[in-house]
Amino acid sequence: MPLLSFACLEERAGKDEIKPTLRIAVASNFRPAMKKLVPVFLKSHAIMIRWQSASSGAIFNQIIHGAPYDLFLSADSEKPQKLIQKHHATAASLQTYALGKLVWYEPDKRHPSLLTMKNPPAIITIANPKIAPYGKAAAEVIKKLNHKNISFKKVIVASNILQAFQYIHTGNIAAGFVAYAQIINLELKNNFWVIPSHWYQPIKQQAVIVQSAHTKQAQQFLDFLQTETARKIIREMGYDLPTKTTGLKGNEHDTR
Description:
The chain is α/β, with parallel strands linked by helices.
């Protein structure tokens, strides 16, 4: 299985300096946040970072087959924990770095809400609930809506949350459930509705250090993600955060 390429995604710590190179694999939905986080981190750390974004499932398979990553930022909690079980990652490093937020996105509807969803489009889309954490959350919401006598005639299952967003954003499908992080920077003011977080199980996006030669540098980046500077960026990019008082594996949210 070919390794994912790091081309054009390298952040250097300094010119003509030999520095440790930290290789990070990042879930696709977290790519915009990562682009803001890495330069801030490098201002105070003399290392080089090469990072690649892809679906969490693809990254998981690459790691299993020997991809040379040092750190994995997943879109869920299942895959990092499976890597630990398979002895491909360090259990003590596991942490929740963000909590995903689900939204109903309907470009042609102004101020969609639970009330407007009582007359939904004939066709909607969600990410595959069998493999995508946002798809699983969407399926939970649809089940809850069924109890409120709201149903959808046809649900198109996208392979991942990015494809679901593209179906809607390009006009191929009228509406569906996507990640808040996908639309927060699109200057969309009134055509989405943030689903109440208690309608679905928390979308814990967890990170873990892969068995590598750069454990120290990987831990430094994990520690950085828990600083107020990084947490502010993550929140601004459309995520909730785990509260520090309950520990990084806790279920409570910080939605400030």
